[in-house]
Amino acid sequence: MTASSKLPAREGRSALDPRPLSVKRGVNPHAPGSAHLIMGHTEILATVTLEDKPAPHMRGKKEGWLTAEYAMLPRATNDRQARERNLQNGRRHEIQRLLGRALRASVDLSHFRNQTIYVDCDVLVADGGTRVASILAGHAALHDFCDRLIHSGRLSDWPLTHKVGAISVGLIGEEIRVDLDYAEDKVARADLNVVATDTGLIIEVQGGAEEGPIRQEEYMQLLNTGVEAVKGVMAQLGRELAVIQGV
C-alpha cells in the first residue's frame, strides 16, 4: 500500500473541489433573515435579528454594529457534546469573533445607525469546516435579511457591500486539498481557514502547521489556493441564492 492510498478518500471530488453546497433561505418564520446551509455533511442554521438598540461602544457613532454568536448542538458530532452554556468557552469565543469580523466586512453599517445586527450560527451537523460554513450561512442569512428590507421599503439601497465567504484548505501529505472534512482535517500537516471576498480580497486567515514547520512557499500555495476556492464557492452560493424567489 502506498502512502497516498492511506490518505482519506474524497467521495468522488478532486483535491481542489469543495464539497457540494446547497442553501435554503427564509427557513425561520420568526427571524427577519435566515438560511439553512448544507456543505457536504456539515449543516448550519443561521438567523439574523435586528435590535433597535446600539451596541454600548457604538453609542453616538454614525454606524450600527454587527455581532455574531456560534454554538454546536450536543449531537452535531459522533459523540454527544455537553451543551455549550459557558459563554467563556475559548473555542466558541474565538469562532464568534471570526464570524463577526468576517460578516461586518460585508455590510455598510451606516444603514443601521443606533441598531445592532445579531447573526446566530448553530451547527446542526458537524463534519469539518463548521466555522467557514457558518460564514457562508451567515452571508446567506444576511442576503435574505437585506432582501426583505428592500422589498418592504425599509431600505432603498442594498447594504451588502461585499460578498464574503470562506473555505478551509490543507496540506494532506504533499497534496493541497480544498474544503477539508473531519477525516482530512485530522491528518493535515497544515491547514488554513481563508476568509475573502468573491473578488479575491483577503479579510482574514487563520491556521498554520500541525506537525512541524512548513516552507514559506507551501504556506503561500495554501493561501492562494484558498483565495481562488472562495471565489468558486461564492459563485456557487450566488447561484443558489439567485434561484430562490425574492420575498
UniProtKB/TrEMBL annotation:
Transmembrane segments: none annotated. It comes from the Bacteria. Belongs to the RNase PH family. Residues 1-35 are annotated as: Disordered. Homohexameric ring arranged as a trimer of dimers. Phosphorolytic 3'-5' exoribonuclease that plays an important role in tRNA 3'-end maturation. Removes nucleotide residues following the 3'-CCA terminus of tRNAs; can also add nucleotides to the ends of RNA molecules by using nucleoside diphosphates as substrates, but this may not be physiologically important. Probably plays a role in initiation of 16S rRNA degradation (leading to ribosome degradation) during starvation. It catalyses: tRNA(n+1) + phosphate = tRNA(n) + a ribonucleoside 5'-diphosphate. Phosphate binds at R91, G129, T130, R131. Keywords: Nucleotidyltransferase, RNA-binding, rRNA processing, Transferase, tRNA processing, tRNA-binding. Its EC number is 2.7.7.56. The lineage of its organism: Bacteria, Thermotogati, Deinococcota, Deinococci, Deinococcales. One of its GO terms (molecular function) is tRNA nucleotidyltransferase activity. PANTHER family: EXOSOME COMPLEX COMPONENT, EXOSOME COMPLEX COMPONENT RRP41. The keyword Nucleotidyltransferase applies. It is an enzyme of class 2 (transferase). This is Ribonuclease PH. Residues 19-145, 164-228 form the Exoribonuclease phosphorolytic domain. It comes from Deinococcus navajonensis.
